Amino acid sequence: MKDKVVLVTGAATGIGRAIAEEFCIKGCTVVVNDISKENIQRVEKEFTKRGYRTYGLMADVTIEQQIKDMINNINDHFGRLDILVNNAGVTAKPKYIEEITLAEWESIIRTNLTGLFLCCKYSIPIFKRQRSGKIINIASLSGKIGATQSSVVSGNGKAHYAASKAGVINFTKALARELSPFGVNVNAVAPGPVLTDLIIRQYDGKVNEEALASNIPLKRLGTAGDVASTVLFLASEGAGYITGHILDVNGGLYMD
Ligand SMILES: NC(=O)c1ccc[n+]([C@@H]2O[C@H](COP(=O)([O-])OP(=O)(O)OC[C@H]3O[C@@H](n4cnc5c(N)ncnc54)[C@H](O)[C@@H]3O)[C@@H](O)[C@H]2O)c1
Fold first, then answer.
1. What percent of the chain clears pLDDT 70, i.e. is strictly above it?
2. Can you give the residue range of the structural domain that contains 111?
């Protein structure tokens, strides 16, 4: 893993930040992407203090030209890209489908699915040229079961979020097939509930951890570190024969 060049999108907070840090600890050079310049600068400062090799790049994954420029910048600066982690994502409060506005629908699909497509599209030429690489997409349990854990209970399903993540899952499989002849592995991780800002915002800051954990067999919520260590495994040599796989990280909440 040492000296690999890694791009993690949405890496300024939560799961993305934990993934970026895990790769830094392994000796990689990590490009920390996010839409928030201020948060990138904060992470860069903290990581540099710890002696990590990081390179902050602000870009909105939904804007094609910004993604094109970001990938060109990485190619010009490092001459390669070994690992792409598509983590940037947004969620919304649970809503019944007839209450979801077109703007809300489009915003979720655009960030979670179109953004991921754009990051792959512009990175693929580098991976093909190298005839090696790893792409890891952050999907979600909701992309498998059509709802988040909380909305299963309440009955309103965050259908836009679930649809975007189901798209990520099938896109991962399609891409894995296309890139297999070039020695590139493409996999996804499907986390259950992980206590990050994304979840805290969803519950207006009042997360009842105990209630959320009560029907999880391992009796706790996931951590950003749980997801990060799984991503590291999929990026490792040991996972070299795994492609097109969607790895559940959910404490046993859902078993495929
Ligand atoms: N937290 C959970 O319970 C959970 C569960 C399953 C899947 N996920 C997925 O994990 C990923 C990370 O989520 P998190 O919980 O760490 O959320 P988070 O809100 O803490 O972090 C998301 C990051 O993505 C960035 N981002 C948002 N839109 C962006 C854009 N257009 N361009 C670039 N960056 C952008 C944000 O600024 C933020 O730093 C998401 O894809 C999310 O759907 C989270």
1. 96
2. 5-249
